[in-house]
Amino acid sequence: MYYYASPRRKENLLLKLSERSSPMAGKEMKNRGGKCLKEVHIVSEALKTLYRQKLLPLEKYYGFSDFHSSSLEDADFDNKPMILVVGQCSTGKTTFIRYLLEQEYPGSRIGPEPTTDSFTAIMHGEIEGIIHGNALTVDPNKPFRKLSPFGTTFLNRFQCVHLPNRVLESISIIDTPGILSVAKRKISRGYDFPAVIRWFAEHVDRIILLCDAHKLEISDEFSHTIMALRGNEDKLRVVLNKADMVDSQELMRVYGALMWSLGKVFCTPEVLRVYIGSFWSSPMRMTDNRKLFEQEEEDLFAGIQNLPRNSALRKLNDLVKRARLAHAYIISSLKEEMPLVFCREKKKRDLIYDLPIIYSRIQQRYQISPGDFPDCAKMQEQLISHDFKFKGLKPKLLAGLDELLNTDIAKLMPLLRQEEDQADKLLVQGGPFLGSHSRPFTEGNPFNHYGSNGESDHVSDEEWVVSKDKPKYDEIFYNLSPHEGKLSGTKVKGWMMSTRLPSSVLGRIWKLADVDRDGMLDDEEFALAGHLIEVKLEGFGLPHELPAQLVPPSKRQRKNSGTEKRDND
Predict the structure, then answer these.
(1) 126 and 236: one domain?
(2) At 12, is the pLDDT very low, low, confident or very high (cuts 50, 70, 90)?
(3) pTM for the whole thing?
């Protein structure tokens, strides 16, 4: 936040990192609270302690929250990784979330008109329910207490949904209102929308910016929203959604137009990575670029799946970035320039106008990189309304910050390496994330065959609901030329792909239908797969576990032995 390490100190820091690279260093280190850092999850606890003891006092002393983000609380360190979903109206934000969760959340609506008018935090909970914004800002277990300054109008448009969902056991998702188009820009929301987006961008682990292949215009509010994301480009992922609704030639033109529009707003020399696809469970309109869409989805979801693994590192990086900001030197320099009594207002105006010169002076005096300074224009705007009752440099606080950056952070690195060794336990599970060892799309038989198919442990003598449609599926089954009464994955895959459903959805259908886990489908399992495909094409969701009434009759008697075999595997 207020400190910059000189080149010599940087060399010392690198030496300490190399000297403390063994796992024993993390086990032996103790923080001032007397706790020994022995386990991976203690990394967040150590960051919390270091922040409270060495960084927070400095933030309070120099009024950091008056100019930048608010102070951090325990929930900011303990919270699961969060994903912020942003985009213009009707670009598929809520549909994208439903595609991730494979179920709707309470209060969600999907339509061509602007349907999402609230900020909704979707989090895991054993009991489904909704908590409204005013209650969220007083809950110490939620990382939203610092949102209260945005006012009652915003809090009335903010809610938290609890949902028993496996994906939400590892991450939380923030759904946002659609960004208004040019025609609707004159309508006031009643709160500072870009400022709220900026607050969330600073606190989340991943930002998904959704664009529609048919809506490439950049409205004023869209431009202001993108500007609010500046400083968090490392978290940003741009997605060109609904790409299956245009053919290959049009898609090439749409992609080029989107890159041109975004380049004007972001103003960076680097080219943004844009992920192309159609993130919904409905059949694709045009399948020319299906393979491309699947590869793009695989790359995007692989990053999301790794968020819990990288969460501690992200929190550490954000803490270091916060600590390096040269706020203390700016405040102390303004303190030195201000007169005690006379002509304070005139001097205040002069100092605000000359702030770029003050920045240059601080850079030369303390050898601070220009990248460690806050945005000059924004700082000038903040200073206009400030009373300029500042404080000078306090060596004791800066010495504590020196120790934080050069010693304490180095001691946490071995613990972060241990966390990487346990990466398989920290990946997002459920939904389109088909397993801890596989990405959303892997080469398999035929889609992604492995592990338990998740069928229900309770099997009864209920009538099989697929029976009435089995003759229809039997005709298709025997036309595919089964071998010894079964179809291989290769033969079934072609027929399933003809439905145009996404491969992630077809992969789940295969897992549910292959009850005996032999990598092939008999006539009953094939009929079950056909039934599940029809259910999905009619707009319904797939079961997470195979209900008793869907288990084929011939598999019910062998169910217990099959379960025992899966446990042994």
Answers:
(1) yes
(2) very low
(3) 0.71
